[in-house]
Fold this protein.
Amino acid sequence: MNSTLMAVSTVGALIMASLAMFVRMKAAKKPTNVKKIILPPVFMSTGFCMFLVPMFRVTPAEILEAFSVGMLFSILLIRTSKFEIRDNQIYLQRSKAFIFILIGLLLLRIILKSILGHYISVGQTSGMFFILAFGMILPWRLAMLYSYKKLEKTLPKYNIIQ
């Protein structure tokens, strides 16, 4: 049963990573805005309801570890997320490195999950990796919001020059 749950969660992670890559490539074709930047972590935060179920609960130390690792991983995402002005609108630049980083993080996640799965329950592992993912997306999206707002301030100047 434990290995079945681990396999199902790994397949789920693969599907989510594929979806993230698809969404990211599609997003680069349309202008972005504040709502598109801040909504993913807001929607993801509903996942914290999983901790109402005892099987997913983790210790404070595990919360700190998972969130810290997520913040560390977010540095890679922050460095590959740049904006540009095209046609007087702000777009997220395409980055080939982003896809490779996402795949690398996914592989690292699978490896870590298989190792941790031997020491803690599948529920706790799932909880920790949810916190890790939230710890990754929150700083990344806050950094994106900061960069977007900074670039947005230059937009009227850019419009005048053109």
User: Anything to note?
Assistant: The mean pLDDT is 85. The beta strands are 83-86, 89-92. The first strand starts at residue 83 and ends at 86.
